[in-house]
Amino acid sequence: MDLLQAHPYNACTSIYPKPPLHRRPFFSNSITLYPLNSLKTTSELRAQVAVTGQNGTSYSLAVPTHKVTVHDRQRGVVHEFFVPEDQYILHTAESQNINLPFACRHGCCTSCAVRVKSGQLRQPEALGISTELKSKGYALLCVGFPSSDLEVETQDEDEVYWLQFGRYFARGPIDRDDYALELAMGDE
């Protein structure tokens, strides 16, 4: 048997050919980090992104990378890792085998909620945290991008949910109005 036929990759490419040129993505990316000893602070760490266009021209872009420290209160562990400014904090942590709390991954719940101790992050897609809580330093790791070196502390999901919605549910038990219920049931 020919070596080309025996290699599994070649078998796959013969069955599934590459898409035509007009359907290939415009850019292909690869990330390279500068050596740590050439930097003065962790904020100077840059991810080097090489972008190649369809015509073969290569461009080099430097993406700032920041040190993120997560104090996981529930597990009693502190995680430190580096995250490029254009990457979600949770996704980068997972790519480095760091387990952090999460649920929806879309910024809609409070499972990955943290309180910012120092630093800044952007979270334009954080629907699960109100503007009021954001101003008090709460953030969601699943849709958060670091803007500087960052230190955060995980929060209890129920605690953040209460802070977010407690004023709506804290009015005490609702009195049951059987007459209104009968009227409503009669309409159906």
Concise structural overview:
25% of the residues lie in helices and 29% in strands. The protein is α+β, with helices and mostly antiparallel strands and 188 residues long.
Give an overview in words:
The chain is α+β, with helices and mostly antiparallel strands. The protein has a single domain, classed as Ubiquitin-like (UB roll). Helices cover 25% and strands 29% of the residues. The strands form 2 sheets. Strands 1, 2, 3, 4, 5, 7 and 9 form a 7-stranded mixed β-sheet that branches. A two-stranded antiparallel ribbon has the order 6-8. The longest helix has 13 residues. The N terminus is likely disordered. It holds the Pfam family Fer2. One of its GO terms (molecular function) is 2 iron, 2 sulfur cluster binding. InterPro entries: 2Fe-2S_ferredoxin-like_sf, 2Fe-2S_ferredoxin-type, Beta-grasp_dom_sf. Keywords: 2Fe-2S, Electron transport, Iron, Iron-sulfur, Metal-binding, Transport. This is Ferredoxin isoform X1.
The proportion of residues in beta strands is 25-35%
CATH class: Alpha Beta
Principal-axis shape = elongated
CATH topology term: Ubiquitin-like (UB roll)
Main beta sheet: 7 strands, mixed
Q: Please work out how many helical segments DSSP would assign.
A: 6
Rounded to the nearest angstrom, the radius of gyration is 24 Å
Tell me the quaternary state.
Answer: single chain
Number of structural domains: 1
Straight-line N-to-C gap: 74 Å
**What's the SSE pattern?**
HHEEEEHEEHEEEHH
The name of the CATH architecture is Roll
Given as residue ranges, the uncertain stretches (5+ residues, pLDDT < 50) are: 1-44
What is the fourth-level CATH superfamily?
Beta-grasp domain
Structure class: alpha+beta
Helix fraction bin: 25-40%
Q: Return the average pLDDT rounded to an integer.
A: 74
Q: Using DSSP, what is the number of strands? A: 9
